[in-house]
Amino acid sequence: MSGSPTIQNGxxxxxxxxxxxxxxxxxxxxxELLAVLDREAEALNGAVEVVVMDDGTGDAALTDRxxxxxxxxxxxxxxxxxxxxxxxxxxxxxxxxxxxxxxxxFLDSDMRPDNHRFLQTWAELVRQQAPAVAFGGFSLLQAxxxxxxxxxxxxxxxxxxxxATERAKAPEKYVYTSNLxxxxxxxxxxAFDGAFTGxxxxxxxxxxxxxxxxxxxxxxxxxxxxxxxxxxxLAGKYEQSAGNFAxxxxxxxxxxxxxxxxxxxxxxxxxxxxxxxxxxxxxxALAAWAPTRARxxxxxxxxxxxxxxxx
Length: 311
Fold this sequence. Notes:
311 residues
């Protein structure tokens, strides 16, 4: 923790947690999530701790507000404030090193539990089964229903907000750090790859590695993904993720070949002048006048066109 200011509230020292909830954030405020989690504190009786990490936001006022909130919380909580951004993979690895539980629950700061027993369900699973890896799923039940997010909502509803039974058919594919339980010994053997930069694929690549050695359990204990993106924001993330996708293809070709995104990218690779065509595909996705389904299809096609260079 050298060079990283860290504070704990008064309940931290006496707690003996079996489960550590790990929440990284950058330039957003996790206060609402922390408040929701703290409502379960009495029922948990010290079995769950929370470690929150600011990955280099550099906002002193936010740090002060969070410090006051942490000190007032009933759950045992530690707040780490990084002075410089470390990124998604390295940051989560650091969070794991700051935790004390035998199981780790990675929870994104823009998630909101969909039921009042969210942490209790995870704690019971740890106590009864201590699975190597488990994913709880996510939903859009509480997410903002605004027209500017309609494309992301449509894509997430059809491709990611899936029940446990369906997810279990391709267990390594439907694993995201938004609501992910990992046993400590598993994470110590297989941490996130710090070479991934920018956005995307570091959690899926991790799941591919882990699934070769341990079973991946899927359960229905979802949380809402509140942080929907506009088409412009999603396109920017996809542009960042192309290099990460290439890294996954190189490491796990046997698994990736079954993914629709790979097959479409492979087909698009044969399209003449794809680099010239790609901006036109993006323009259709950005066109507010176009039907949502058409925009969502175009955005997926744009992503595949970016990934064509990786296959």
